[in-house]
Write a structure and sequence with these properties.
This protein is an alpha+beta fold and 252 residues long. It is built from 8 helices and 8 strands. Strands 1, 2, 3, 4, 5, 6, 7 and 8 form an 8-stranded mixed sheet that branches.
């Protein structure tokens, strides 16, 4: 089914810190990939319509929500997306806490699990669809713009950065204080943006850590052995990581 161009909310959830622990050592690299796959799966599985997965891009998940009548129109789509952004953060940090609690390996990737952070960039604009085999690819200047937002001047590794165009349509963002900025985007120019910093109180991360109980040794051992089995299969080319996503990219 070929879809017509439409207005959409565009979201990229990007994992900060992935490159730092991707080293050349085979064990570290394989474990790093398994950790990132698990975290990406948590993001994908936390999403729900009207938010759709457009593509997995290394250490990031690219989502879109089409502002069509079947999704309730612009207002309903905006409200849904606003709530789902916080769910993406919660899902990410819950999975991060789980992975860290199961850790027995002392490689750089596994030890670095607590250092990973999530950043989200958002924009709204018109998108076009192109069928390429079984997948729908998104095209348009606004698709380029939201990707360029990842290369910004922010020093923080955890935030929500959106264009002022989107912020004016949302009206607010969970009562967080907006920080207005202007970013210079390559090939596009200056773009007015708004930044928000989700708090631990909003996400509930402090409560999870305080109330979490250490998993039994048997479960930790099983997880450790499974990671090494997957590593061996991956190195031998028998299994490709990331084949078990529940929500696949949009298909025609």
């Amino acid at each position: 089914m070929q879809l017509s161009p439409c207005q959409a909310v565009l979201i990229i959830a990007d994992i900060s810190g992935f490159t730092k622990f991707m080293k050349m050592h085979a064990i570290t690299t394989s474990h790093a990939k398994q950790i990132i796959v698990a975290l990406l799966e948590s993001l994908v599985n936390a999403s729900s319509p009207p938010l759709e997965l457009a593509e997995l891009e290394g250490d990031a998940a690219f989502f879109y929500a089409a502002c069509r009548e079947e999704n309730g129109g612009v207002e309903s789509t905006m409200a849904s997306v606003k709530g789902q952004v916080m769910e993406l953060f919660r899902a990410f940090y819950k999975k991060q806490l789980e992975l860290d609690s199961l850790r027995m390996c002392i490689c750089e990737a596994c030890v670095g699990i607590p250092d990973l952070r999530l950043k989200v960039v958002m924009h709204t604009g018109e998108i076009e669809f192109q069928q390429i085999r079984s997948f729908l690819k998104l095209f348009g200047l606004d698709v380029i713009l939201v990707h360029r937002l990842l290369k910004n001047s922010l020093r923080s590794k955890e935030y929500v950065l959106m264009t002022d165009t989107l912020f004016r349509q949302l009206g607010d963002f969970h009562d967080l204080k907006p920080e207005k900025r202007r970013e210079e985007l390559e090939g596009i120019g200056k773009v007015d943006t708004v930044v928000f910093y989700p708090t631990e109180e909003m996400l509930g991360t402090n409560g999870w850590r305080a109330n979490s109980k250490p998993p039994p040794f048997s479960r930790k051992l099983k997880n450790w052995l499974m990671m090494d089995v997957v590593m061996i299969l991956d190195l031998l080319g028998i299994r490709k990581l990331g084949e078990s996503f529940e929500n696949l990219p949009a298909k025609g």
